[in-house]
Specification:
Elements lengths: L1 H15 L22 H12 L12 H13 L10 H7 L10 H14 L11 H14 L9 H9 L10 E3 L13 H15 L6 E3 L21 E4 L23 H14 L4 E5 L3 H5 L13 E5 L12
Helix pairs in contact: 2-5, 8-9
Length: about 325
Amino acid sequence: MRRVLVTLLAVLAVFCSGTPALAYANAFFHTQSAGNRGADVAAIQHLLTHHGHTLTADGVFGPATTTAVRAFQSAKGLGVDGIVGPATWGALVPQIRQGASGPAVRALQVELNEKRRLSLPVNGVFDASVTTAVRDFQSHAGIGVDGVVGPTTWRNLVWHYGYPDMAAGLCDKDPDGNGTANWATAASVGQLERAARTFAATGQGQIPLGDAGFEHGGTIPGHASHAVGLDIDVWPIRTDNAQCTAGRITWQSATYDRAATRALVQAIRSAASGHVRLIFFNDPVLIDEGLTTQYANHDNHLHVRNCERVHPNSLYTC
């Protein structure tokens, strides 16, 4: 508990400072722990390998990753809890530049591909194309443009939101006129993609993705939350599996498929064990089953709230 409180205070110092040293006033290292998945986890796995704790970079924070994190923390004199918070991230990330090679460069390439929607080969070679991508990101983030990846660039890059791969089994819906407000934390994206692939295997169509967040966070019109990259809306499933092409429904609609929507909720929860804080959706049967939570104005969509072990906002702590 003491370790978590110390880490939280460190995050709050970054989040709340009136004169942040970073381009984004709310930029910080997203905490990753057992059950998370996505690009940030893959980057952590590459960085652990860089430090001699060899792992397969599968983007899944499983037992082997927890063991490696604990070993790394012990070696660095950090609190040993298996959780990658700001202090552990800070010890993991090295300064690298053009000419470098190896797992740390792979971590960088994974992050750039996710956060800037690029297709760099994840080959561990810091060549001219990677330098260009780094400089472009630094310009995008409003930080010093030198092509060198140091602590500030790493922190802004890890904090930056990712964009889901629609080919995973998603379709883009825009119910509130917010455009492609599909950005979310790398863990939220990775977990949604996993759930979509699991649900696609049921043969009941794609998952309609409503609003998630803007690229750099902030309030989204029509939503009371969705400001920190951890809230994602999806639509319920129809009996005709046409949720991506037909009209929007509620849980009371004749074409509402409760069994398929239940399977969707279960896929979302199983994709992120311990990292789904709640799902707002007003189907009373799913509420009675403990799968969703009642909340006003959530008859026609499922509001998935992901969480982290440490977060500046207590609404998003697991």
